[in-house]
Each structure stands twice: as C-alpha cells, then as structure tokens.
Design brief:
Layout (H helix, E strand, L loop, with lengths): L7 H15 L5 H21 L5 E4 L10 E4 L1 H24 L6 H20 L3 H19 L5 H32 L4 H9 L9 H17 L9 H7 L2 H28 L3 H21 L6 H28 L4 H36 L4 H6 L5 H15 L5 H15 L3 H20 L13 H16 L6 H6 L1 H10 L1 H16 L17
Antiparallel strand pairs: 1-2
Helix pairs in contact: 1-2, 1-4, 2-3, 2-4, 3-4, 3-10, 3-13, 3-18, 3-20, 4-5, 5-6, 5-10, 6-8, 6-9, 7-10, 7-21, 8-10, 9-12, 10-12, 10-13, 11-12, 11-17, 12-13, 12-16, 12-17, 13-15, 13-16, 13-18, 13-20, 15-17, 15-18, 16-17
Length: 523
C-alpha cells in the first residue's frame, strides 16, 4: 500500500544529507544535483500522499511499543507545503549560494532540515517527534550562521541559546507525561487522557507538562512574547535560509507541533483555547504595529511573519472554544480549515517575498529599503512575481491571502467572537497599509538573475496563484476542510487504537488501553 512509502519521506533526505556531507568539495556539483533530485522526489511524494491517510508501524512493531508514522488531512497539507518550499529553495540556492563558500554543506544541512520537518509531521509519538524537531532546528542554527560574519554568528548564537531553553521545556513536559502514563504514543495518550475524569488537566504535574510543551513550541513558532530571536535571524541569515525558516520551520515545528499536542494529546478544552487566543492576539497586534517602525525589508518580513502566524493561531483558538463550549460544529470546522489554509498561504507568499529580496541582494549587492525604492528599471517577470507575493500577503482579492483571512474573520463573527474579529481586522488593515506604503520597494530593477533563481521564483509565483483554487468547493472539501475535521476528531489516531485492540483480542491478550467505547470525537 502507498502508506508503506511513508518512511521514505524521512529516510531519503536524511540519507542524502549524510552522503552530501561526506563528499569532497570537488564533487560539489553532483552533491547539489543530488539534493535537488531528492527534493523533487519529496515534492512528488507529498503530492502522492495528498489525498490519502493512514499509519505505518516501523519494523512491524505495534503501537504503543513500536514507533509509528501517522498521516491525516492536517499533516498531509503541511507535508505538501514543506515539499514545495524545499524544492523551491534547493533550486534557488544553486545560484544564490555561489555567494558563499562550501555550498555543498548548505545542501547537506538542507536535507537534514527537511528530514526533521517531515519527521515532525509524520511521527506518531511525542519523543520521536521531539528528536525530529531537534534535527530540524539544530540544522537551522548552523544555517543561520552559514556566512560566518559577526551579525550572522551573533543571531545564530542567540537563536541557539533560546532554542535550547525552549527544547528543554518541551523535553521536561514529555518526561512528566511518560512518568504519569508510561507511554509517549500520541494515539495511546489521547485515549488515556480522554478516559480521565473531567478537570484532569488541572492536575498539577499534567498542567505543567502541557504548559511546558505549549510554551516550548510557541518559541519555535516565534509567537509573542517568544519572538525575540526572529527579527535578528531574518535580518542577517542568507535569504535561502530565511525562506526555509519562514516557510517551513516556524509553521511545522512551531504551529503544527503545538496544535497537534493540544488538540490530539490533551484534548480540546476551554483554557487551552484561551491560551492560544492570548498568543494570537498579542502576535497579531504586536507584529502589525511593530512593522510600521522598520526600514529593513528583512525586519518587515520578520514582524509580518509574527502577525500572519497569529491569524492561524487565532483560527485554531476560536475553533477550540467553539468545540469546548458546544458551539456549532460546522463553524469550528470552517475556522480551523481557514487557519490551515492561511498557514499554507503564508508559507508560500512569505517565502516568495524573501527569495525576491535575496535575488536583489544577489544581483545588486544591497537590499537597503531606500535604495530599492529608487530603482525604476524593472525586470518584467520579477515585477509580476513581486506584485503577486505582495498582494497575497496584504490580503488583496482575489489572491489566496485574502480568502484565508476572510474565512477566519468571518467565522469569528459567525461564532459570536466579535472582539477577536476586530483584532483580526486591525491586523488586516495595518498589514495592507504597510504593503501599500512599500509598494515601490517590491519592484526594484534587477539586471541579472541566475537561471535557477528565475525558475524558483517563477515556480513559487505559480503556486501562489494556484493556491487560490483551494477555495473551490470540491477542492476545499478535499484539503482544508478534511484537514480541519481530522484534527478536530483525531480519526486516524482512534483507528490506530481500535486496530491495536483488535490485534490484542486476536492474540487473547489483555489490553492496557482504557475502553473508549463512550469516547467519541466532538461534533
């Protein structure tokens, strides 16, 4: 079956990363091409898995003893997102990384980072997911300082130190959960916690475990007030690296891991919903108004990323409140689908904006905002790509960024959460004003664009335009809506438990998993 190919999404990039790292510098040409071939395979694989689901038991060992990979509507959308970003950045870096020595080392780290991101998405237990998270973020620490200049090294050091603290909190949370329940398997834990008495989350050890894990992932997502590393990283790191971080790392390692932990492991509760909404409101408002002070385009993108991801967290937060307070299920599905849609959109248009800025840096030798605004002789294709990225980021109709924001804001109104709708509208307006004020800076003249950079920009522009098709009803039901229903009901994880229980019955062995015959998904 197709689900038996799931391990290849991790094994291929990890194996390629080690091979490329071991190759001598004289084989850099072939090492770079190997990386591109692997990213193309990952993109093909993510497309192959985009309409399927299921789980895979590594080595044939059943859960919760063995390690398993799980695929549902939520992570398959983000798997496709990582595939698109990874392929685009790999192509783009062929020309862009000529500014740096040891470019083959960049591709080795890129492969390891993609392996970590895919592993984070697919892992079916908390500890192995933590290992994959660390593979991805440690690779990003090194990539941020790849140029070995003082500002880059300073930003990388700050990022690594704070990231290590956040990782420690996450690991402590996992340790507490294991000490309480004797398992770290996500499906196993979800059923055990669902069978606990109401209010169990306020049990002190479990409460601290949940807080530690959520706050650790909030740092990875650069949500306010855990965002302090991001502006410096965006300003100093190579554009190809910033594209990976903005397009893949913060969305997968931060948002996905946090939402999967809250919704699937701990269950949808009111107080966790309010925690998400607090992070969302502060991120939207702080990011939106802080961007008004910035002159550097990189710092504009950094604070816009904080604000844009706040929109997605707002959708997840309101969705969890609706479910926990027995509100209309269809509105919860709609707003969570909008949050996932916006997470996908942000990865595409923000990566495109950053790669365009990197193209100017590569071609002209500077990226100062004032100088960029003075350029008038525009490359036509570059100008079109800039407009598409800017319009989608600003939420101008009919681009995808407009639809995802409107779905989130409209759902807040439908659910009666008017204050959060107002917060979203403020962020929406400020974002649009910022991009309008800087519209000329998105159309700089570019005298020379490398072939691989031109292809990468063109490919991502096409994806940015095509993402609008997700609002077509049949496509919407297949991807964002299905993703929302899967994360709200945990259907794939419940199927794992039922199949495991059936295996135990066939072997006439007692099951240690509580009977969940009365535990049904919220609807």
């Amino acid at each position: 079956m197709i689900k038996n190919l799931l391990p290849l999404m991790i094994v291929l990039p990890m194996g390629a990363g080690f091979i490329i790292a071991l190759l001598p510098e004289k084989f850099a040409y072939w090492a770079n091409r190997l990386a591109i071939a692997v990213t193309a395979l990952l993109l093909f694989g993510s497309g192959l898995f985009s309409t399927t689901g299921g789980y895979y038991e590594i080595g044939g060992w059943p859960m919760p003893v063995g390690i398993n990979l799980s695929l549902d509507g939520f992570n398959r959308v983000l798997l496709l997102m990582v595939g698109i970003i990874g392929f685009t950045v790999a192509i783009y870096a062929l020309n862009y990384m000529q500014l740096y020595t040891g470019s083959n080392r960049f591709f080795a780290l890129l492969m390891l980072m993609l392996a970590g991101l895919n592993g984070t998405l697919l892992s079916g237990d908390l500890f192995n997911r933590f290992v994959y998270v660390e593979i991805a973020v440690i690779s990003s620490y090194i990539l941020v300082g790849f140029g070995c200049q003082a500002p880059e090294l300073k930003a990388a050091f700050k990022y690594a130190v704070l990231g290590t603290v956040a990782s420690t909190f996450t690991l402590l949370g996992i340790a507490v959960i294991y000490s309480l329940y004797g398992t770290v398997n996500i499906a196993h834990l979800s059923v055990q916690l669902a069978a606990e008495p109401t209010g169990i989350l306020f049990n002190s050890p479990l409460l601290f475990a949940g807080l530690f894990m959520v706050l650790g992932f909030a740092y990875k997502a650069a949500l306010v007030p855990f965002h302090v590393w991001q502006p410096d990283v965006f300003e100093t790191a190579p554009a190809a690296v910033v594209g990976l971080i903005s397009g893949g790392l913060v969305g997968v390692v931060g948002i996905y891991a946090m939402i999967r932990t809250i919704f699937t492991v701990f269950g949808i509760t009111t107080w966790l919903g309010w925690m998400l909404l607090s992070l969302a409101v502060f991120s939207i408002l702080y990011g939106s108004f802080k961007v008004l002070e910035q002159e550097s385009l990189r710092r504009v993108y950094a604070y816009q990323t904080i604000s844009q991801l706040g929109f997605s967290v707002l959708g997840f937060g309101v969705g969890s409140l609706i479910i926990s307070q027995d509100g209309p299920y269809w509105v919860a599905v709609l707003i969570v689908a909008g949050a996932i849609f916006h997470l996908f959109n942000h990865a595409i248009f923000k990566t495109l904006l950053i790669l365009l800025e990197g193209t100017v840096e590569h071609s002209e030798g500077y990226t100062d905002a004032v100088n960029l605004s003075d350029k008038t002789n525009c490359d036509r294709n570059f100008s079109i790509a800039s407009f598409v990225a800017m319009a989608s980021a600003a939420g101008i109709p009919p681009f995808a960024g407009f639809f995802s924001k409107m779905i989130i804001l409209g759902s807040c109104v439908l659910a009666g959460y008017y204050l959060f709708a107002v917060v979203g509208v403020v962020g929406f307006i400020v974002s649009s004003v910022v991009y309008y004020r800087r519209r000329r800076r998105f159309f700089p003249g570019v005298e020379k664009i490398g072939g691989s950079m031109r292809f990468a920009v063109g490919f991502l522009t096409t994806v940015c335009l095509a993402s609008t098709l997700l609002v077509i009803p049949s496509v919407w039901q297949l991807f964002p809506e299905q993703a929302a229903e899967d994360i709200l009901t945990d259907q794939i994880y419940l199927e794992q438990i039922e199949e495991w229980r059936q295996k135990l019955l066939n072997m006439q062995l007692p099951s240690s998993v509580p009977d969940n015959s009365e535990v049904t998904p919220d609807d």
